[in-house]
TrEMBL record:
Annotated GO CC locations: plasma membrane
Name the UniProt record assigns to this protein: Nucleoside-binding protein
Domain ABC transporter substrate-binding protein PnrA-like: 35-307
Keyword entries, A-Z: Signal
């Protein structure tokens, strides 16, 4: 589905594009008519909702810009049909928000070399195809600082989608934040093998609560886990967007996406005639990822800890996966004085110290 780029990156070896593609000629803003294809409905409250919020942010940044979107476009041949329809209807730029759209993006882009295509989370590029994603692990780390500070039982549950590098990287970053704030805390993982399944999400959340967790984290697309936390009276860290409406008294914060940063910047480049194919992977510094507002129970001391750690990342020279970092067995995977490369982060397939759970094969 939409985030399997990292799974295939592990197989093929992810390398950021270094080809010297030429810039495209400028296009007047009123003639761009950007078109979007979404993997899910904008009412999902999570992943697609935040992409559409980004689309609206983009429109607001350019008076006269009008865009269109198509919801629930499957990762199959129908994606090509929808993109061709957008092009025939006047879209000079097409955005596809799911990894499984990738090959169809390349297929349609080959037919329309004068049209610009941007693909979320993929790794294939062409003269008129670029990719974009965000360093969500940075926001995950900051949210882990909050979770680690708020647990009383030192047991934090984590509802996890699929055992692929993106999700594993997020769990690890979250756990590093948890252990920075509270070295005695552990993060227990339950896999649900789905991106969006409210029933499974809530069931997993309840199982973690029954196992002793007094704070929950999550990598899933709905508000089911936060609802379970609210009902049980325990704290929760949401995901994708501010999920405090699902847990009005127990929501601590959430790592959130600001897709509009990429959408706005892409349109600006198109208007200025500076757009060229590249692979975009940006984070806190650029505003691509961030934290939702803190819940009322988060102490000022915890807020300060988060701001201090955020400042370290923003200053450069240090990031979440700088060593020393140990795996579950206590073996040093990232020695002190070194840092994981982007390729290593994008293919991560091991848990850090403090995670309780297995990575299914």
């Amino acid at each position: 589905m939409k985030r399997f780029s990292v799974l295939l990156a592990l197989a093929v070896g992810f390398i950021f594009c270094s080809a010297a593609f030429a810039a495209f000629p400028p296009v007047p803003v009123e003639k761009i008519n950007p078109g979007f294809i979404y993997i899910g409905p904008i009412g999902d409250g999570g992943y697609t909702f935040m992409h559409d919020k980004g689309r609206l942010f983009m429109e607001e940044a350019f008076p006269g810009l009008k865009s269109t979107y198509v919801e629930s476009v499957p990762e199959g041949p129908d994606a090509a049909r929808v993109m061709e329809t957008l092009v025939r209807n006047g879209s000079k730029v097409v955005f596809a928000n799911s990894f499984g759209h990738m090959d169809f993006v390349l297929e349609v882009a080959k037919k329309y070399p004068e049209i610009i295509f941007m693909h979320c989370s993929g790794y294939k590029v062409a003269e008129n195809v670029g990719t974009y994603f965000g360093r969500m692990y940075q926001a995950r780390y900051l949210s882990g600082l909050v979770a680690g500070s708020m647990t009383k039982k030192n047991v934090i549950g984590y509802v996890a989608a699929y055992p692929i590098p993106e999700v594993i990287r997020g769990i690890n970053a979250f756990t590093l934040g948890v252990r920075k704030a509270n070295p005695n805390a552990e993060v227990r993982v339950i896999w649900i093998f789905s991106w969006l399944d409210p029933g499974k999400e809530k069931e997993a959340a309840k199982a973690l609560i029954d196992a002793g967790a007094d704070v929950l984290g999550m990598h899933a697309d709905t508000g089911a886990a936060p609802q379970a936390a609210e009902e049980a009276g325990i704290y929760v860290v949401g995901y994708n967007n501010d999920m405090s409406n699902y847990a009005p008294t127990k929501h601590l914060t959430a790592p959130i996406w600001n897709w509009g940063i990429v959408y706005r910047d892409t349109i600006r480049q198109v208007v200025e005639g500076t757009w060229k194919s590249e692979q975009v992977w940006i984070g806190l510094k650029e505003g691509m990822v961030d934290l939702a507002p803190f819940g009322k129970d988060v102490p000022d001391s915890v807020k300060k800890l988060v701001e201090d750690e955020k400042a370290k990342i923003l200053a450069g020279g240090w990031d979440v996966f700088h060593g020393p970092v140990k795996d579950q067995g206590g073996v040093v995977k990232v020695p002190g004085g070194t840092a994981m490369t982007d390729a290593e982060m994008l293919s991560m397939n091991w848990f850090v110290e403090g995670v309780k759970g297995d990575i299914p094969k």
